[in-house]
Each structure stands twice: as C-alpha cells, then as structure tokens.
C-alpha cells in the first residue's frame, strides 16, 4: 500500500501520519489568558529537539470553524508558556482539558488541578505534573495560516523530587509513568520497557544527540 501525499485530503494525511508515528509524547501546555485566567491544553504534535539551547516544539492548528485556540493566542500575546508532562494519575484530566472551553474558563480551575508558581515566566505550572519546563517563545513557523509551529526555549526545569537522582542526573524509571498518545482518544502506558546493548555496551546507547 502506498499513497502520494498529494492524493490524500489533509484529514486522510492526518490519519496516515498519526496512526503510525506513535506513541507521541504530550505537551500539556499552561498559558496565561488576557484576564489572567490560567489555560491548559494538551498537544501531541510535540517533542524536544535540542539541548543547547533546550528547544521543544508543539503545533497548534485552528479549530474547524477557523477560531484560534487559546493556547496560541496566549503564546502570541505573552511569549511565555509552561510544558507539563502527564503521568498516569493525571492522564484523564489531561484528556478532559482538551475540551473546547471558552477563553474565560481556565481548565485547571474547572478540573480542580492545582497550580504552582513559575520562576522565570508568568504562566504557572501544574503542581502535580512529574516534570515541567518554563519556556519563552523562541520562534514560530506559520504553516499556511492554519497551523503554528511553536518553538520554545526552556528556561527552567521542575522535577518531582522522588523521580530524580540529582547526583547521577538520572530519572528513577520505576517511579515515572508518563503516558503516550496513540490514536484519537487512545493512550498507552510506558511501563513495558526494553534495554539493548550496543557493541560498545549499554553506556554508548545513552549518549546524547537525539
Ligand atoms: C492528547 C491530545 C493531543 C492533542 N494534540 C493537539 C495538537 O498537537 N495540536 C492541536 O492543535 N490540538 C491538539 N489537541 C487538541 C487541543 O488540545 C484542543 O483543541 C484544545 O481545546 C485546545 O485548547 P485551547 O483553546 O485552550 O488552547 C490535542 C488533544 C488531545 C486530547
């Protein structure tokens, strides 16, 4: 089976892409609205792309009726946001926060998600998130006026204490349970892990570079 990309509609392309490129990590992005309401929404066209500087990117499209999403409007106006990671206990609320809430209703408030202040940016982080990164806007790539690729530079990392060995700078994987996005409203757990050695030994596999 093969398709030329141009022979598919954009909805079909979305399916072909997201049905196979998975699981996808999820950025649960908190931003500040114009009336200081705290907005939270998940984005799974997301990943980290470099460590110097620490850059992440997520992609926000317009709603089917052409309305801009609050996250994009808030990032465009303030240049600041926080990327929060989602673990299993938070997953259902993360999913619920993707509803089409009016701009004056903050998802964290509505879903009773606690907030914690950020240090370098105004939008707070989600207090229960296992990991959060305060970001300032680094660059935006406008895709056909329908989608914004938001690239953020991480200014500060927050890590839940029990997840991290600060001396070895390692995560305790047995305690960290992030979820991934499969397709549509399906998610996966990440507990069933594999370890492979390279010819040089397992240390080589842990090297950086992406
Ligand atoms: C797991 C998950 C991932 C999502 N990923 C994206 C995405 O990558 N880009 C996007 O524009 N919308 C994505 N959405 C939909 C937004 O979360 C949704 O449109 C939300 O209402 C936007 O909220 P806002 O208006 O507060 O920004 C995703 C939804 C879910 C549940």
Characterization of this structure:
The protein has one domain: Electron Transport, Fmn-binding Protein, Chain A (Pnp Oxidase, Chain A), CATH 2.30.110.10. It is built from five helices and 13 strands. Helices cover 15% and strands 33% of the residues. It has 210 residues and is α+β, with helices and mostly antiparallel strands. It has helices spanning 10-18, 70-78, 91-96, 107-110, 202-205; strands spanning 27-32, 38-43, 46-51, 54-61, 80-84, 115-116, 125-126, 131-143, 147-159, 164-165, 170-171, 180-181, 187-188. Flavin mononucleotide binds at residues 26, 39, 41-45, 59-61, 69-71, 95, 98, 100, 181.
Question: What's the gist of this structure?
Answer:
With 210 residues, the protein is of the alpha+beta class.
